[in-house]
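Troubleshooting: if your tokenizer reports a length mismatch, compare your output against this known-good record of 369 residues.
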Amino acid sequence: MDGGIVHLRRIGSRLEITLGPGFTSADLAWVKALPGRRWNRETKAWIVPHGAAVLEAAKQHFGEDRVRLAGTPHHPAPPVDPAEALLERVREGLLLRGYSPHTRKVYLGHLRRFLEWCDQRPDDVDWTITSRPAASPPSPPDVEEQLRGEAEALVRRYLVDLVETRRLSRSYHSQVVSALRFLFETVLLRPRIALAIPRPKRSTRLPEVLSPAEVGRMLTKTRNLKHRVLLMLLYSAGLRVGELVRLRPADLDADRGMLRVRSGKGGKDRSTLLSPRAVQAVRTYRAAYPTRHWLFPGARPERHLTTRSVQRVVARSAQAAGILKPVTPHTLRHSFATHLLEGGTNLRIIQELLGHASSRTTQIYTHVA
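Known-good structure output:
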């Protein structure tokens, strides 16, 4: 027999694929080529949609003798972890409501840590995840997962524990609250508990801003052409780092001096500025490094550069320029907005260029300026 045993398990309409010891590179390549597949780090398995079609394709690729389907009489399905089943429902809810991949990853991480914390609580805390009959709106065909007991008190204890044992930033604290509210209001249909979860007081800290001279030093000290263009677009267009790495060549309108941001924060498109100097830098960059799909491809051309890579580039450029204050990609976005305001640009225009949903968010730059 060539290759190891392949274990398959149905999860609703999806299929979980685990490659046993002895699998080949061809086996792995076949799984990675499946449309919509994703890797679950917790279960060490691949999750793919359209399980019925994939099951037949798996039998043809691997052969009947290598495929083991959990849930058959000879291969009973292992017990489903209730916490994992609940997290899967959360993932589906986030996906169907159009949350971005980054937000889905963040929320699921917070909720996984919350459930792990619950599992480690002493016996005096009454919490469980239990099965109940399906209710409206329709639930998955297996069970309706519900937190019961002193859920409100449990959430408060968890948040207090987080605040007391870790020095949380306001944004991190607020993310945890948003994830918990989504769990209780949207997934478990318990809006009263969701509304009772307190959100931390809004922070009054002012953003870190560079001077035009400091930005100029960063650009001068950055010798790598690709890195210099990254910095110029972050600053001259006021982009978020996630918007920058997802730029495509077609998003740049050099003739009008505009840049199209597609599916920015909140899934919104917008247009922002593209300075003549940035236009020339991009032209030079594209002449040296022709790109097709992404303006800034990563190590693999079919994928864009990672946000972490951009963060490292910005940090190294700031260090080379002798800037002692902490500098991130968002610092350049703050600097863009502040310098526009200091130059007399209307606050409403700056709000549109930044893609802020509320003018209150943009008004913070009046204090910086």
